[in-house]
Specification:
mainly alpha
């Protein structure tokens, strides 16, 4: 009876050891699969971090370019505004000078008409004097 029980226990022990070995092999396989998946995820994370850094650098570079362009456009606008102000001032001066010249031309034309009229009267007086002078000895 003892021998039979011992034999039965040994067989049960062998079966349990075999089941244990099978379970350990399955566990080792699952651990291997999980390790592969972990490594794959780590690689994916590294790639995504690299892409994120590249995008961040590209964005910063793009922002720097935009800032420079905005600065350039702002400077250009300031320059054009100053030129516009200067041109408006110059136009005002030219208009004032033009007005003065028109006044001067108007006065000179008036003087010319007056001088022409005076010259006409003087000619008439000279002609009259010649007539009178022609009759005088």
């Amino acid at each position: 009876l003892i021998s039979s029980a011992t034999k039965s226990l040994r067989m049960e022990t062998e079966i349990l050891e075999k089941k244990l070995q099978d379970a350990q092999m399955k566990l080792a396989e699952k651990d291997g699969d999980k390790e592969k998946e972990i490594q794959s995820l780590k690689r994916l994370i590294s790639e995504l971090e690299f892409q994120l850094n590249m995008e961040k650098n590209n964005s910063e570079s793009f922002l720097d370019k935009l800032r420079k362009e905005i600065k350039h456009k702002s400077d250009e606008l300031e320059k054009l505004t100053q030129e516009r102000t200067q041109l408006i001032h110059s136009l005002s001066q030219v208009q004032e000078e033009n007005s003065l010249l028109q006044d001067t031309v108007r006065r000179e034309c008036q003087e010319r008409r007056e001088l022409t009229a005076a010259l006409g009267r003087a000619r008439e007086q000279v002609l009259e004097l010649r007539k009178l002078g022609g009759s005088l000895p």
